[in-house]
Design goal:
The chain has two domains: 170 residues, 3-Layer(bba) Sandwich (FAD/NAD(P)-binding domain); 144 residues, D-Amino Acid Oxidase, subunit A, domain 2 (D-Amino Acid Oxidase, Chain A, domain 2). 28% of the residues lie in helices and 26% in strands.
């Protein structure tokens, strides 16, 4: 870890979003300091499954477009990171199936398929026989599936390590102290305060996930709430082809190496990042419906993380309209890994050119946050 007194840009947060922003800044020649006090066990990046699932839940046309664009950055990014750091981020583009387990879900998924085809995206409808031909032991209740052949996954922890390693290779300093306050004077960022000392910086990127609103010195309230997601791991069932199977009510099963990643809940539990019996029961109910062979396998690990969720489900991305030099890259919710690659490019361009080709108005911190309905929200244990 490094101590610094000045930097061109200070990145607050070293999860996947902070890491990708740090790499983008350093790659563009900026002296970059990344404030990462160490991964919080409840941080979103560590708890993510790493799905690049741009097309399986396209209820928001803006997020669909951003997600597809970001997803398509990952193949060259994976190759570049492997070349410069030697770290394999586990990039896999074998497709994701969003499975209908009831007739009532078929029309909705068929509509998604039609909308995506009209937009020029590859997307297929699989009949139950097609699903069972591809994955013979999967989802006996299946009545069809949306199949997005270009969706896939990465290993989120390997991705974050690789991004930080590459940022350091490019000259970024990794600082172990947490930022306590953003310093602002006369409508402009002047730096950050960490461990009682001020680090001067003309530009600051806030990428602290669910903890972003807690930072002192912010010029505005950020409507970001921690939403807990619990997950579990078992061995991947023998003689079962690798797959990512998803159910529209937030259940999924993902193959990674010899393991099965099972998830996930969406719970309003404050900053309580613990695993609960109720949450694990929900996960397993969904997972076993998708892949019944999991029922006889032993859990090797369970964990939880806090996703930074905004009322409208969209991230807060771009410059502060009132404070020069302050940029937001936070509130990505369940789409942090998916949107990370594009987020890095946006922030990198803003820091160096002052503009980006992405329309940031719908992602502005001053937009009207129209709430969307929660799905499968579990109340915290009492």
């Amino acid at each position: 870890m490094s101590r610094v007194s000045t930097a061109d840009v200070a990145i607050i947060g070293g999860g996947v979003i902070g890491a990708v922003c740090a790499r983008a800044a350093a790659e563009r020649g900026l002296h970059t300091a990344v404030f990462e006090p160490g991964p919080d066990p409840a941080a979103a990046s560590a708890a993510s499954a790493g799905m690049l699932a741009a097309q399986i839940e396209p209820t928001d046309q803006l997020l669909l477009g951003l997600g597809v664009r970001s997803r398509d950055h990952y193949e060259p990014l994976a190759a570049a990171l492997k070349d410069t750091t030697g770290i394999d981020i586990g990039f896999w583009r074998g497709g994701i199936a969003s499975v209908a387990l009831a007739e009532a879900e078929v029309d909705q998924l068929r509509e998604y398929v039609a909308l995506q085809r009209q937009a020029g995206l590859r997307c297929d409808w699989l009949e139950p026989g097609d699903v069972h031909e591809r994955w013979p032991t999967a989802a006996p209740e299946c009545v069809g599936a949306l199949y997005a052949p270009e969706d896939g996954a990465v290993d989120p922890q390997a991705l974050t390590r690789a991004l930080l390693a590459d940022a350091r290779r490019l000259g970024a300093a990794l600082v172990s102290e947490p930022v306590e306050e953003i310093r602002i004077a006369d409508g402009r960022v002047t730096g950050v305060r960490a461990a009682g000392s001020t680090v001067a910086a003309e530009r600051v990127v806030l990428a602290a996930g669910a903890w972003s609103p807690r930072l002192k010195g912010l010029p505005r309230d950020l409507p970001i709430e921690p939403v807990r997601g619990q997950m579990a791991m078992t061995p991947w069932p023998a003689d079962t082809p690798p797959a990512i199977l998803y159910h529209i009510r937030h259940g999924y099963v993902l193959a990674r190496g010899g393991d099965a990643i099972l998830g996930s809940t969406m719970e309003h539990a404050g900053f309580e990042g613990k695993v609960t019996n109720e949450g694990l029961a929900q996960i397993f109910r969904s997972a076993v419906r998708l892949l019944p062979a999991l029922a006889s396998l032993t859990v090797s690990r369970s964990w939880a993380g806090l996703r930074p969720v905004t009322p409208d489900g969209r991230p807060i991305l771009g410059p502060d309209p009132d404070v020069a030099g302050l940029y937001y890259a936070t509130g990505h919710g369940r789409n942090g890994v998916l949107l990370a690659a594009l987020t890095g490019e946006v922030i990198g361009d803003l820091l160096t050119k002052g503009e980006t080709d992405v329309d940031l108005a719908p992602l502005s911190p001053t937009r009207t946050f129209t709430p969307v309905a929660d799905q499968d929200i579990l109340k915290p244990d009492v």
